Automatic annotation (TrEMBL):
NCBIfam families: dTDP_gluc_dehyt. It catalyses: dTDP-alpha-D-glucose = dTDP-4-dehydro-6-deoxy-alpha-D-glucose + H2O. Its EC number is 4.2.1.46. This is dTDP-glucose 4,6-dehydratase. It comes from Roseateles toxinivorans.
Length: 357
């Protein structure tokens, strides 16, 4: 059996592929365009492993996706590929509309004729699993109840608007064409291989380099944090036993202000790799706020817990300690990402296979 993953060289996608292949002998076909955020180095441990078939390509390329479906006949497609960074979406929304909206549309339209032609048991068994975000629900006040699956969509950034559009497309392809879809809306992930443009890895990397730790606005914006392998386990559960057409919210019940996050990172670094100049806290700098910065996200994950018995394995305390330690142990990964040298590694190790389907 085979699964087709899009965006499997990104942060969550690569964690998912590694996690999946730790517990399964199924082949994973990994379609990724290798944008700045895609890093095959994350999957170096799978080098030479026949269960991982990497294909460099764009989800907008219908001919390519169609041929992958015909060749590999996957029992499921897990759609991670996206432009994912809110700040980038503010400065350049075009790529977000193309990949997140048009790309999801192209993927659905590539899958539909192939799926329709399957025999009835394969057709029934197939799943299109769309990986999405809590940001589609908008922003909460401090006293509001956490987002549940029926919360109205109120996206506020170009990124979240593009993800909201993709969620709606997936929903429509189920209701209109009967495509067996599943959607998960997850809160902020953190952990290994997180690109150092996002809050937690940026703070770790900057602190170690003695650079400023920029906190937007007053630093009291709240996010709910989930260790990435817990997101992977939630996706596995939903894929295996989720009800077709349903949406499942995924979260860690770990609401933290950005100040708390940065202070926790500094405290862990002070313990694990003491700052020669005293404490990394000295580097904290409050900077201009992100335009339209959502104040609070919080996820009500009770549906997933109740229906599928899913629980996160990590607490925030265990997950953040592992994460800080991972970055301390993988300074070569950070250096390569920052210098872009991982692209040379891909060329040397994957060569033509990375350049063609
Ligand atoms: P990421 O930016 O780290 O990785 C995205 C991957 O998609 C990269 O490997 C990139 O090369 C690939 N990609 C981009 N455009 C592509 C295209 N047109 N065709 C093929 N591949 C393309 O993102 P991430 O943080 O791993 O997020 C993965 C998914 O999870 C996204 O859909 C995101 O919206 C969602 N999500 C992320 C978080 C989070 O905290 N990071 C939380 C909830 C949901
Ligand atoms: O909620 C899920 C979302 O989480 C995902 O859908 C997105 O793909 C993912 O990027 C993430 O979005 P955020 O905008 O919440 O993540 P980011 O790490 O960019 O920022 C987290 C918080 O930290 C946010 O309130 C902005 C703030 N921040 C961020 C950066 C990069 C700072 O204060 N300083 C910074 O330098």
């Amino acid at each position: 059996m085979t699964i087709l993953v899009t965006g499997g060289a990104g942060f969550i996608g690569s964690n998912f592929v590694l996690d999946w292949l730790r517990g399964s002998d199924e082949t994973v076909v990994n379609l990724d365009a290798l944008t700045y955020a895609g890093n095959l180095r994350n999957l170096a441990s799978l080098q030479g492993d026949a269960r991982h078939v990497f294909v460099k390509g764009d989800i907008c390329d219908r001919a390519l996706v169609g041929s992958l479906l015909q060749t590999h006949q996957p029992r499921a497609l897990l759609h991670f590929a996206a432009e994912s960074h809110v700040d980038r979406s503010i400065h350049g929304p075009g790529d977000f509309m193309r990949t997140n909206v048009e790309g999801t549309f192209a993927l659905l339209e590539s899958v539909r004729p192939w799926w329709l032609a399957l025999d009835s048991s394969a057709k029934e068994a197939f799943r299109f699993h769309h990986v999405s975000t809590d940001e589609v629900y908008g922003s909460l006040g401090m006293d509001d109840a956490a987002f549940h699956e029926a919360h109205p969509y109120q996206p506020n950034s170009p990124y979240s608007a593009s993800k909201a559009a993709s969620d709606h497309l997936v929903r429509a392809w189920h209701h209109t064409y009967g495509l067996p879809v599943l959607t998960t809306n997850c809160s902020n992930n953190y952990g290994p291989y997180h690109f150092p443009e996002k809050l937690i890895p940026l703070m770790i990397v900057n602190a170690l380099a003695g650079k400023a730790l920029p906190i937007y606005g007053d630093g009291l914006n709240v996010r709910d944090w989930l260790y990435v392998t817990d997101h992977c386990s939630a996706i596995r559960e939903v894929l295996a036993r989720g009800r077709v057409g349903e949406v499942y919210n995924v979260g860690g019940w770990n609401e933290k202000t950005n100040r708390e996050i940065v202070e926790t990172v500094c405290a862990l670094l002070d313990e694990l790799k003491p700052d020669p100049a005293g404490s990394y806290r000295r580097l904290i700098t409050f900077v201009k706020d992100r335009p339209g910065h959502d104040r609070r996200y919080a996820i009500d994950a009770r549906k997933l817990e109740r229906e599928l018995g899913w629980r996160p394995a990590e607490t925030f305390e265990t997950g953040i300690r592992k994460t800080v330690q991972w970055y301390l142990d993988h300074t070569d990964w950070v250096t390569e990402v920052q210098s872009g040298a991982y692209r040379d590694w891909v060329q040397a190790n994957y060569g033509e296979r990375a350049a063609t389907a």
